[in-house]
Structures are given as structure tokens and as C-alpha cells.
Design goal:
This is ATPase BadF/BadG/BcrA/BcrD type. It holds the Pfam family BcrAD_BadFG. InterPro entries: ATPase_BadF, ATPase_NBD, Euk-type_GlcNAc_Kinase. There is one protein chain. The protein contains eleven helices and ten strands. The protein has 307 residues and is of the alpha/beta class. It folds into two domains: 97 residues, Nucleotidyltransferase, domain 5; 183 residues, 2-Layer Sandwich (Nucleotidyltransferase, domain 5), CATH 3.30.420. It is globular, with a radius of gyration of 20 Å.
């Protein structure tokens, strides 16, 4: 019997599944194993915790694994990829396939098939695939450059807009919520905290931005809506490229794309997901947006089984 290991290694959590050819045998979630987000020591401890939990729950040793597939953001960054290959390779048998997190999510929605996937969690990314298997992406350049609509982006943009609201004397709940979250009592302390080295984890502010939006705060609502609209714009960029490729290959008009979503922000921030869908439908009412987020680790499992 063959055994397969699948991992969705996000910036905050890592979801792991051990399976055979027919069914899932064990599943666990631990902290991140992404070296851009945590120290080598913490990533190693999280990895060992995950593998031990899978072995305990399934009775299967990691040395018996035939194929592993791991999806993570930053898979092309040496710090991330080299660490994962070395540490997982030293503890797990068989071959290892390392892919982007958005690619495994795409396979969870459309196994090997045509479609567009919008991922928004701690980070964000958009990926699409043509009917003949060509892949393309937009966004996903990390928090310092892009990651539109992600948890990190929501937190940092919420902070920016809170200060802009103060400058323009616009009422908002955001500043008080940020003061409470950061345990500061003055603007000077907040500015100092925001510019600390290393910087604070702005993704932790995303929850309060969403909470303020749900309470009707107009500043927070605009932040959430903009996150969804920015992701829709990236999805349209990907769709346009895919359609152009398909039409060049076939000589006939390309069909409308189907869009799936994944990630904690897409799963839990309904206003952002709705803003993205509304923006897509404004451009083309025929675009289908799947109603439920997909489970990316199942895409990694599909790839492991079919590698």
C-alpha cells in the first residue's frame, strides 16, 4: 500500500494530511514551517510536531511515505525552498514535490483542469490554468510589495487609513481598536510601534479591521471592499492572459472562466469575498465564482497521488 503526505504550509499555519490511495488517514494543523515567517528552530519544532501527530494518529511511519507534495508561498525563495527540502527530506521517505500555495489550491478546485484561483490568507496570490495546462499568476509578491487583500494587507491598510481618518477628521473606530490591540495610549507610541525593528505582525490587525467593518465603520468597510476589488483586478489580469493564450492556440473565442477561492480571509471575511465577486460580475456577469472556499491541502494530496 502506498502512502502520501500533503502539506499546505501557510504563513501562519501548516495543514498536513497523510493518506493512502483511497482515503485520508490522518490530519493535523501546526504553526508555520515557512522560514520567511519564523526562525529555523520554531519551523523545525512545528514540522516535528506535525509528523509525530500524523504517525500517532495513523500508525504509519514517515519513512513509508511514497510521495510528498508541499504547497507554500515563496517556493522560489531559497530560504524557504532549501529549508523545506532539507528538513522534510531528512524525516520523510519517498520523493518531494514543492509547489506554490496557490497552485495546490488551484488543484483542489480544478484537479489538473482549467480555472482561476484567488487565494487570500496571511498573504495573497492569484493563479490560473488553461485547458492545455499552461499556468500563469498575478500578485503574490510578498507583504513589502503587494499581497493585496491578504490579512497582512488588511491590517497595514487599516492602520494607514486610521491615521488618514485622523488627519481628515473622519470618524472611525479603527484607531481606538488599534490602540487596544497594541496596548499603547498615545499616537507617538503607536507610530513608534508601527516602525519597530523588526516590525509588528500587521496581519494580527486584520481581525479588528473586519470587526470594525461589521460594526458599520465606513473607513474599515472601504478597506475591506478595496481588498476584494484589488483581488478581482488581479483575477481579471489572469483571465485575460489565459483567454488570449487559448484563443491563440485554438483560433476560437475562449470560454468564460470559473473562479474559486481559498485561504482564511476568503473563508471568513465575507464582505471582502462579496466585494471581489461583485467587481468580477460588474466586468462580466457570466463569470462564475464558486460559493465555498476550497481546502488547498487536498490539491497537494491530489498532486502527490498523481505525481
Amino acid at each position: 500500500m502506498a502512502f502520501y503526505l500533503a502539506m499546505d504550509a501557510g504563513g501562519t499555519n501548516t495543514t498536513c494530511v497523510l493518506a493512502d490511495d483511497e482515503r485520508e488517514l490522518a490530519r493535523t494543523t501546526v504553526g508555520t514551517i515557512k522560514r520567511m515567517r519564523a526562525s529555523a528552530e520554531l519551523c523545525k519544532a512545528n514540522l516535528e510536531e506535525a509528523l509525530a501527530a500524523l504517525e500517532l494518529a495513523s500508525g504509519v511511519k514517515m519513512s513509508a511515505v511514497k510521495q510528498t507534495c508541499i504547497g507554500t508561498a515563496g517556493e522560489t525563495v531559497a530560504l524557504v525552498a532549501d529549508w523545506i527540502r532539507a528538513e522534510v527530506g531528512a524525516r520523510v521517505g519517498g520523493d518531494l514535490l514543492l509547489l506554490g500555495d496557490v497552485e495546490i489550491a488551484l488543484d483542489a478546485a480544478f484537479p489538473g483542469g482549467r480555472g482561476v484561483l484567488v487565494l487570500a490568507g496571511t498573504g495573497s496570490n492569484v493563479c490560473g490554468r488553461t485547458s492545455d495546462g499552461r499556468l500563469t499568476r498575478a500578485g503574490g509578491w510578498g507583504p513589502a510589495i503587494a499581497d493585496q487583500g491578504s490579512g497582512y494587507w488588511l491590517g497595514r491598510e487599516g492602520l494607514r487609513q486610521a491615521f488618514f481618518a485622523m488627519d481628515t477628521e473622519t470618524p472611525t473606530l479603527l484607531m481606538d481598536a488599534i490602540f487596544e490591540a497594541w496596548k499603547v495610549t498615545s499616537l507617538g507610541d503607536a507610530v513608534q510601534h508601527a516602525h519597530a525593528v523588526p516590525p509588528p505582525d500587521f496581519s494580527k490587525l486584520s481581525r479588528l479591521v473586519v470587526d470594525c467593518a461589521e460594526q458599520g465603520d465606513e473607513v474599515a468597510i472601504r478597506v475591506v471592499q478595496r481588498g476584494g476589488e484589488d483581488l478581482a483586478e488581479l483575477a481579471l489580469v489572469v483571465m485575460d492572459r489565459l483567454r488570449r493564450w487559448e484563443e491563440e492556440a485554438t483560433g476560437i473565442p475562449s470560454r468564460v472562466m470559473c473562479v474559486a477561492v481559498a485561504g482564511s480571509i476568503m473563508a471568513h471575511v465575507h464582505k471582502l469575498r462579496e466585494a471581489m465577486a461583485d467587481a468580477l460580475h460588474t466586468f462580466d456577469p457570466d463569470i462564475q465564482v464558486l460559493p465555498q472556499p476550497v481546502d488547498p491541502v487536498l490539491g497537494a494530496l491530489w498532486r502527490a497521488r498523481n505525481q
